[in-house]
Design goal:
Length: about 230
């Protein structure tokens, strides 16, 4: 697998280094990188992206509940050096890649205020900021038969999602929480955040995203102990 440098990154995104979207800041007004990827995506992915996926209503910033998000871990917090961190995207893709945090921060930033719901009986309204997972998936050029996406975390947590939920416009790889840089306990440098799935689907400390055409016997840390796999909200 190659190390992904800036030139290759821009080339894959169908852009020259002088172009606005990646040359500028992360708050680029260009909403959707997917629309400008030069190579056609596969049909399944394009259908899912074009099919209007109902957005979940968001909350105003005034409704954020800063003290309600309970830190959930195995009892330890993994150590990740942001300088050497790479997010791997691999599996059934034509363009496997390793992205640095710098690469990721150049992609369009999306922010949303949503409710996080844990099966243990608590919930919290949180603002998340980050890159849409569908933009990352599009960059990696998924193969025809992709149906599932696995997430590996640095604390050995693992999860799998259906492709449609990954391509939902409110499914983010978040690096900000309540307007600030995401803290390590909450999953820094990168975590899943989406209003469409229960808390245990929202992997923290994600290091690897693997696209697949079938589910493996091991589906997810909690799922493998009897919790429901789809876990939709
Ligand atoms: N890597 C990892 N991700 C994880 C967990 C975990 O233990 N490890 N716990 C999950 C559960 S059950 C919940 S409710 C949320 C909690 O997110 P928070 O710790 O930011 O509140 O993280 C989810 N993601
Ligand atoms: Mo949870």
């Amino acid at each position: 697998m190659m190390q992904f440098n800036r030139r290759q990154f821009l080339k894959t995104a169908g852009l020259s280094s002088g172009s606005l979207i990646l040359g500028g800041c992360a708050l680029s007004p260009f909403a959707d990188l997917v629309g400008i990827v030069s190579e056609p995506l596969n049909q399944r992915v394009e259908e899912l992206l074009l099919k209007p996926q109902t957005p979940v209503p968001e909350f105003p910033i005034s409704k954020i509940e800063p003290d309600k998000l309970i830190i959930n871990t195995f009892g330890f917090t993994p150590e990740i050096d942001p300088k050497t961190f790479r997010l791997t995207i691999d599996g059934a893709v034509n363009q496997p890649m390793q992205l640095s945090l710098g690469d990721i921060y150049k992609l369009p930033l999306t922010s949303m205020v949503i409710r996080h719901v844990c099966v243990e009986g608590w919930a919290a309204i949180v603002q998340w900021g980050g890159v849409r997972l569908r933009d990352l998936i599009a960059l990696a050029q998924p193969k025809q038969d992709v149906r599932y996406v696995y997430f590996q975390s640095a604390d050995r947590y693992y999860e799998s999602w259906d492709l449609a939920s990954c391509l939902h416009p409110q499914t983010l790889m978040a690096y900000q929480k309540n307007g600030e840089k995401l803290a390590i306990d909450y999953g820094a440098p990168l975590r899943l955040a989406a209003p469409i799935k229960l808390g245990y689907k929202q992997s923290k400390w994600v290091t690897r995203i693997t696209l697949t055409n079938s589910l493996f016997p091991r589906k997810g840390y909690w799922e493998d102990q009897g919790y429901e796999w789809f876990a939709g909200l």
